[in-house]
Structure to design on (308 residues):
């Protein structure tokens, strides 16, 4: 049984695709989330609409969890794992789907190092309503482990199945996580600031900021000696093209007034840039612009007022 922690866009995408490919899977949702017993709608890339009766369980259930695809956003990682910790045992394995980096620091409190995996996802999807998902851009999922180099059995079964998710194994996942982080650090805050779909970033009015950020990011990647550095401009522009119709996860968060992954993505990147004494005026300007538009205190106050 594959358990998917979090019923956001990526959690639902995995649940639909795994269910369609006859895997036994369940969504694990918070006790306070309200989902109806109706089917979960899925709008595929070709705009065909289908529905699935997805299995679900709440955090406080007691059945043990073995393989958990952790799809909550980075700011909720600690609290979501805390809420299911009574269901995790020595054999439980966590696959971390969060954007950003450094999440193993939290995961290590719950499972042993050899049971921690990372997944880098570039599929684009957004929720039209809580149980209605739009699959908006085909990407792939690259999985790797914190400690081991070879793929575990569950991975081999997934990769061989006809899920349509294009799942690959990476013996060294770190450069792939970095690549994803650098893509997200450009696309996500820009789409949140300009309140646009990914594809709209190439419009003339946003182009100079986009290109300046891409160039600064490429120079940092070069300084870090990443093999993909020289291709980074083409890589980011290609993700924008492939996911043109998608609303980035950060856009979706600001519109829904949820805490964003800005710290896990851009905060992490700026820390790394600073520790390498890398001059990054465009990324700092982006960071300021984002926080002026979405001040953390205002966001917190909004979240608190919503819970009363
Ligand atoms: O975070 C996201 O939204 C996605 O990683 C991506 C690839 C930018 C597509 O929207």
């Amino acid at each position: 049984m594959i358990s998917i922690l979090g019923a956001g866009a990526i959690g639902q995408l995995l649940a639909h695709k795994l269910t369609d490919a006859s895997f036994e899977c369940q969504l694990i949702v918070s006790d306070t989330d309200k989902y109806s017993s109706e089917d979960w709608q899925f709008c595929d890339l070709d705009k065909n609409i289908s529905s699935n009766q997805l299995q679900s369980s709440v955090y406080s259930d007691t059945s043990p969890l073995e393989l958990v695809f952790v799809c909550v956003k980075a700011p909720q990682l600690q609290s979501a794992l805390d809420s299911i910790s009574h269901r995790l045992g020595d054999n439980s394995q966590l696959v971390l789907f969060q954007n950003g980096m450094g999440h193993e620091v939290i995961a290590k409190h719950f499972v042993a190092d050899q049971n921690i995996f990372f997944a880098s996802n570039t599929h684009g999807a957004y929720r039209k309503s809580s149980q209605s998902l739009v699959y908006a851009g085909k990407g792939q999922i690259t999985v790797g482990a914190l400690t081991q180099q070879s793929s575990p059995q569950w991975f081999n079964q997934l990769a061989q199945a006809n899920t349509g998710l294009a799942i690959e194994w990476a013996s060294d996942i770190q450069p792939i996580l970095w690549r994803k982080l650098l893509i997200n650090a450009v696309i996500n805050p820009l789409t949140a600031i300009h309140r646009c779909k990914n594809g709209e970033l190439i419009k003339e009015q946003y182009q100079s900021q986009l290109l300046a950020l891409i160039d600064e990011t490429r120079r940092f990647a070069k300084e870090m000696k990443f093999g993909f550095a020289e291709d980074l401009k083409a890589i980011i522009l290609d993700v924008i093209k492939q996911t043109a119709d998608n609303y980035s996860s950060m856009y979706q968060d600001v519109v829904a007034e949820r805490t964003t992954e800005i710290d896990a993505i851009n905060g992490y990147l700026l820390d790394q840039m600073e520790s390498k004494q890398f001059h990054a005026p465009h990324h700092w300007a982006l960071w300021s612009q984002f926080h002026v538009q979405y001040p953390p205190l205002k966001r917190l106050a909004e979240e608190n007022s919503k819970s009363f």
